[in-house]
Amino acid sequence: MKVLKLIWKNSMRHKLRTSLTIFGIAIAVIAFGFLRTVVTAWYAGVEASAANRLVTRNSVSFIFPLPYAYRDRIARIPGVETVSFANWFGGVYIDKNRFFARMAVDAGTILDAYPEFRVSPEQFDAFLKERNACIVGADLARQYGFKIGDIIPMDGDIYPGKWEFVVRAIYQPRDEKIDGTQFFFHWTYLNERMRAEMPGRAGEVGWYIIKIADPADAASISGQIDEMFVNSRAETKTETEAAFQQSFIQGTSLIINLFNFISFVIIGIIMLVLGNTMIMSARERTKEYAVLKTLGFSGQHIVGLIAGESMIISVLAGGLGLLLTYPVVGAFSLVVPKSWFPVFYIEPSTIVLAGTAALLVGIAAAFFPIQRALRTTIVDGLRFVG
After folding, report:
1. Residue 244: burial class (beta carbons within 10 Å; 0-12, 13-18, 19+)
2. For residue 237, what are the β-bridge partners?
């Protein structure tokens, strides 16, 4: 217990220097946690993908449509449980800065394909009965104040014209990993207007969402679907939902890799800050360590004193940084529009990684001061002037 008391007193001998070191390391831990959260939020769509969902799109590009007639043919493939579809609508709500995902969907099957979007039976029935009804995510409803019965006007861009949608259902995400900012409405509402105003664009869907019985059959079913439409006017590419989501973030991989790199550079900065403090402390106590050796303290005692001081500082700084990471991330999620990062929360793995890094840095920062203290003889230590 006396050794622990001595370690604590050594740590707090220079209160200003120790406080600044703890503060600096805490800031670095916050930055590390924040950047890691941004990276995990970027991959949230991939992480939330279901293993038993496939996506079929046009093989040329995602922006090209597929015929509605493909639906029944896909549904007849063994192992396919549900075939739904969606169409990117776009549109402008209030102004172009108010972005959120707006999609025309197959109203009867969309919740079968996405059971993680939870809607009460009463609201879903109301949605099915009204042609221009829509379902909005709970996070989107909170952001814009949408309520059941509200009319949402939009100006079409991909599909020109004035559009009005009535909120008949609000879905609740199954958990915090699920996007709660999406907007769904009846594909039939879109298709009927296209048939009347732009006949050439009627009967088209953006992509098919296919729920299969066994995720192990994903490759074989994907192959059967694509083979079915070889040499057709719209050949297909079928892949798992995770692969489909991954394709959207490939264009930003450089940014993500940069964030990853910076987050780990921060660990190096933490080590430099703490290492500098420990080297200064050990240098100042050169005579003290020589006296301790004279009194019979072994090398293990010296190691314990230096390493213990380093660990106390790293644990205090790491704990403070982790505690402050939560309000910082929370404040960022409130300031930034929800549609930018629909899923933005601190994963447990981020906390574990940051905490482990702080502990390892505490051990590493003590290495050089320990080596110097052990190599210094009693005579040289007593003669030291610093």
Report:
1. buried
2. 57
Copy the structure tokens of residue 356. 């482990």
Task: Compute the distance between CA of residue 128 and CA of residue 251 in angstroms, rounded to an integer.
Answer: 37
Please report, as a single letter, which amino acid is at residue 366.
A
Residue scoring higher pLDDT (140 or 369): 140
Backbone φ and ψ for 341, nearest 5 degrees, come out as -130, 85
Q: Which residues pair with 172 in a beta bridge?
A: 118
Distance in angstroms (rounded) separating the CA atoms of residues 164 and 157 = 14
pLDDT tens digits for range 234-283: 999 999 888 887 776 665 666 777 777 777 787 777 777 777 777 777 67
In the chain, the amino acid numbered 136 is V
Q: Which residue has the higher pLDDT, 5 or 114?
A: 114
**β-sheet bridge partners, residue 104:** 87, 185
Grade residue 366 by pLDDT with cuts at 50, 70 and 90.
confident
Angle at 80 between CA 75 and CA 82, to 5 degrees: 70
Task: For Cα atoms 237, 108, 344, give the angle at the middle one, nearest 5 degrees.
Answer: 65
Q: Which residues have CB under 8 Å from 34's CB, separation 6+? A: 325, 328, 329, 332
**Maximum pairwise Cα distance, the chain:** 98
The predicted-structure confidence for 156-198, as pLDDT tens digits, reads as follows: 888 888 999 999 999 999 877 788 889 999 999 999 999 888 8
Q: Where are the domains of the chain?
A: 2-44+252-383, 60-234
> Which amino acid is present at 3?
V
Which residue in 118, 112, 135 sits closest to 185, CA to CA? 135
| pLDDT cut 90: percent of the chain above it | 34
- Mean pLDDT, residues 13-31: 82
Give yes or no for a contact between 167 and 136, defined as CB atoms under 8 angstroms apart. yes
Phi, psi of 241 (to 5 degrees): -60, -35
pTM of the model: 0.70
Cβ burial of 156 (10 Å; 0-12, 13-18, 19+) is: middle
Contact criterion met (CB below 8 Å) for 245 and 101? no
Distance CA 12, CA 309 (A): 9
Contact between 86 and 205 under an 8 Å Cβ cutoff? The reply is yes
